[in-house]
Amino acid sequence: MAGALSLSQFPVRGSVSLPKRRIPRRSFCIRGMSEISSTFSVSTQQEEPTSNASSVTIAPPPNFKPPEPKRFAIRPDKTSEVFGALLPLLFRFATGVFVSGYSFSIVSKDEIPPDEYALELNGVTIKETAKLGPRPEKPIEIYEFETCPFCRKVREIVAILDLDVLFYPCPRNGPNFRQKVLEMGGKLQFPYMVDPNTGASMYESDDIIRYLVDKYGDGNVPLSLSLGFLTTLTAGLGMLSRISKGTTYTPAKFPPKPLKLWAYGGSPFCKLVREVLVELELPHLLVCCARGSPKRNILYQKTGTFQVFDFSNPYTGIEMFESAEIIEYLRATYALQ
Question: At the top level of its lineage, which domain of life is listed (predicted)?
Fold first, then answer.
């Protein structure tokens, strides 16, 4: 080992070599779920979803073919959107990009097995690790929407703690989950968290953050999330460039089960896809895989590459990478024309 360094919230910078394998891609992974159906039914057991599209057949566009994974690149027609989605990351000083206790070590390439994920920078092999707290048996459930600064704060702590979360999008005029929040908590306020592992439920982003770090972290709230009004202000300012995205409901087919995403909120590519998921009110299990997460290696072993965004649908058998194409697929498959 040539050296080691530990950081918490600041990104590693440098030019990136792009070998055939071990490429840290900037996208995310979405997958239709069957194994969390019991969790899904618990949160919606009071009544069936009110969407009038719940019985509509879900199918991809005719003759649809998933695109092949590509080396990291921004599609020319999406450049302005990506830079707009990057603004929150700059205002929030990369909060949510690194898992708690993140550290990296420079190692020999021979020390990394062929089936293990590692970062490569200019021919240097870097092994990333983190220090995680207790793991919840069941995913935390959070009701929220994309452009709420208080919701963003909670998404950031979820990434830092490397928690899997079942997100129920609550866009304005959404027919399904906003009413659930009112029934469960008595207020139409977001974010709203339910922990099925303990029975705890609560509003207020700061209370949720404190609860999660006490229960599943080391008890310490990161500095960037403990600055009160300044934290909320920077979270809000970062959203100005895309303030209308991920806010209002677009009539859509309602999926029988939540989708599944391998993602982390700090990526602008992930943000663009989440905006559409929220607008279509598609419930989704977020498998967090920020820098340092051991789940990066799980995804790498599963797919043979690391690209956070890989999409699959259990009803059609379609699996795909590339955030821009996934956005088009989601709209074509779920939005009501």
Answer: Eukaryota
